Structures are given as C-alpha cells and as structure tokens.
Amino acid sequence: METRKVQVTGGSTYTVSLPKGWATENGISSGSTVEIYSEDDTLLITPQRDTNHHEGTLEVATLEDEQLIRAVLTMYVSGFDIIRLEANRITTEQRRAIRSAVQGLVGVEVVEEGSDSVVVQDLLDSSELSIVNAVSRMRLIATSMLEDAVTALVENDDDIAQDVIERDDDVDRLFLVVSRIFRATLRSPRAAEGLGVSREDCFDFHSSARQLERVADHAVKISQLARKLEEIPADVADALLELHADASTILEQSMDALFAEESDEATKLGHEALESVLEIDEHTRTIDDMLRELDPVQAQSLGLILDSLSRSADYGGNVAETALQKAAPRP
C-alpha cells in the first residue's frame, strides 16, 4: 500500500499523483488516459484499454479428448473472446474434441480451420450478457429437471428420464456463462459497471449458480437410476414425492431470497428455507426406514435417490445462506 496526499489545484479540483512504479508497469506516461470507476467509498483506476476483446493462443499438441475440452472451456471462462489452438498438425480426434467443447458453450463458433490451427470465437456481445438472467434461467431448468426426474421415477417413464439427462447440458452451458461473467468482474471494473451489479453480488450469484448446477446433476443421477428401476411400491413413491415437494419449496424460497430487492424479505425467506432444511433430515430418516423392508438391490438404488433429494435440499440451504449474507448490512 502507498499513500498520497490530496491536493487542490485551480481552487476547486482535487488531484492525487499515481505511483510511478505502477504507471511504468502499465505504460502510463504524460498524456495517457486512465479510467476511473466509483464503487461506494472506493475509486478504482485502470489504464484505458483500446479494445474489450481478448485473444489467446494455446498449444494443444499434447492435449487430447477431455484434456483438450477442459482447456478450451478454461480459456473461455478466463475471458478470451478469440481462442487460437495450435499444433504441428491438428488431428481428427482433436478436431472432434474441439467441436465438442464449442457445442458446450453459448455463442461460441469455430471461425477458422487449418492443418495446424483452429480458431474459435465468442460471437456474443459481452454487454448483452446478464448474470441475473443466466442464474434465473438455471433456476428454472434445474428445478424443472428435479421435478421431472422424480416424475420419471414414480411413473416409470424412461422418455421423461432421458429428457432430464439431455437438459443437463443447458445448465452446464449457463454455468460457464455465469463463471465467465464473474471472472470478468474480478479482472475489470468496466465489466462490473456494464452489468449494473456489484462485484459482491456477482460473487453471490456465482456461488448460487454452482448450487443449482449440483441440483441438476442430482436430477440426472435420479433419472439414470429411474431408467434401471421397475415400478416402485406406492407408499415409497408417495413418500419420495412429498420429500421432493419439500426440497423444491426450499429451493424456491432460497432463490426468491437471493433475488429479493428488500433486505427484510430476503432475510425472512432465507431463514424459512434454512429451518425447513432441518425438517428434511427427519423426513429422510423415515423414508430410509421404509427402504429397509424392500429387496436389497431396489433399496440400494432408492437409497441413492433419497440421498440426491436430500442433498438438493441442502444445496437450497446453501443458497439461503448466501442470500442472508447478501441481505446483511455491509461494513
């Protein structure tokens, strides 16, 4: 940390000098323009950038399959708008992995291909992205997936189960968008200003989006197990439906608390959701006792489903805790 004394020039203008070391490292000299952002009681100063687009190059000669897919996704989340993938020769398997990665991203396309390189580009206007809209969309998809997964189980409907599994890709794509936006706000105050959302709130939305992604993953797990199971006893089906209803209520209350504009409303909903999480544990133990009377193989699968519903409620509780922190007074 360095300190500077504020001076007055011209009788009405406050001035403060920039640290020479920082200015030199960032190419700031006499006549340069810097950007100044106001955030509550804080001023952020950055060098003025000529462009908002970031281009990155990645050597992929040693990367294949999942490693290559993860590398592309990482470059995307890190904020690169143009990603150039290079090697002495891009193999057919590598091109297939690159296409798979691109299909998992929103607004990204392959724009150039050669024998030794592939270029992918984010074609979306970053200013049009909204972290609030992305999380809201994740909420709708994840909660509907969980509901349909339980429906597929109790109705023994493999088509519904398969549909749930396929929708998981939509949630994953949206979470990558949320992660990209969040990391952009950490790097640049301009990104946060463009969103109209504080960086603290972006952190809360990102944390909650992670919980929704996990709910969707458990919906997929339930659907996969549902496809393997035959009809289940009516009393167990009714109990699981009731448990889902409780878990769904917790998720809805938690998300309502996260998006609430009034602190009092957010606090009320957050506490209600957390209190309901405690009741889930007792409900889960009751169903677990019912499963002990079933065939061991069936009981094991239903036990995993029971655990997924319980965990989904816990994830709702995590969102509720985030909502309470978001609504709390700030120092």
Provide an overview of this structure.
There is one protein chain. The chain is α+β, with helices and mostly antiparallel strands. The chain contains ten helices and eight strands. Helix content is 64%, strand content 12%. The strands form three sheets. Strands 5-6-8-7 form a four-stranded mixed β-sheet, with helices on one face. A two-stranded antiparallel ribbon has the order 1-2. A two-stranded antiparallel sheet has the order 3-4. The longest helix is centred in the C-terminal third of the chain and has 32 residues, at 296-327. The radius of gyration is 25 Å and the shape is flat.
Principal-axes shape call: flat
Indicate the low-confidence ranges by residue numbers: none
Q: Report the sheet with the most strands, covering strand number, pairing sense and barrel closure.
A: 4 strands, mixed
The N- to C-terminal Cα distance equals 21 Å
Class from helix and strand fractions: alpha+beta
Strand content: 5-15%
Mean pLDDT: 91
* Elements, N to C (H/E): EEHEEEHEHEEHHHHHHH
CA gyration radius, whole angstroms: 25 Å
Annotation field: number of helices = 10
Indicate the percent of residues in helices. 55-70%
